Amino acid sequence: MRNLDITTLRSFIAVADSGGVTRAAGFLHLTQSAVSMQLKRLEEMLGLDLLDRSGRTVALTASGEQLLAYARRMVALNDELVSRLTDHEFEGTVSLGVPHDIVYPAIPQVLKQFNAAYPRVRVLLESSHTRVLKDLFAKGSCDIIMTTETTCDAGAVTLATRPLMWIGAPGGVAWRQRPLQLAFGRLCTFRPNVVAALDEAGITWQVLVETESDRTIEATVSADLAVHSMIEGTEPPHLERIDHKGALPMLPAQHINLYRAQGGKGPVLDALSDLLLGAFAGKVDR
Q1: Residue-wise DSSP of 24-69
Q2: Predicted local confidence at residue 166, as pLDDT
Q3: pTM for this structure?
């Protein structure tokens, strides 16, 4: 296995860009003989002529032109890696707020990817309700928040728009009961829209469970004692979408929005925002 040396590749790029060994040596703060020796070792290792030395100026051979494209990419990747691992600009913490119901399955993968790219940056994940997260963001306590809303406020970016679905126990019949038994969180932003849809459809309903605990809601729905509503694709594996065949009203679509702070963490927040966009944008309803 032959391993290319980044320093040698950097010298090769300098010679190609400057058109000569002498100019490249001055740019690299090396002697002309040192640069010439590096190029000779590179050619010997590859067994190729990289430079055409027949003229007054140095020109690249066909093999040299091909190597140059790879060399630029390898040097750039090397410099990016060193910068990410050592630059203080990429140190510190970033606070990310995400509603309980959209943490899975996307957010763990986003955190894993971000940690691989920025190992010196610690992400503080805050999982709460949209109302709480917007309050935290307004106070400057979160750098980035995601929300689930029927609208998109000024300054927000909509990552995805997905339908709100009726959720129940696998094979359950609770959705057939009247009054319809509901299980909701006290601060759930879906609840007013669900209630309004039921009232408009003339379906009587009753809140069986009102809690701060998502686990309590899931347990109640799993026991087929009540139904719930969740954004399509976020339901846990032990619950399922209700195939009510029109017996329950259609629910309004929800926007998954992103709000991000402005300031000195710009490059890091840009990177995290891009990962979140990539995780959710693929499922935008057209």
Answers
A1: HHHHHT--HHHHHHHHHHHHHHHTS--EE-SSSS-EE-HHHHHHHH
A2: 98
A3: 0.67
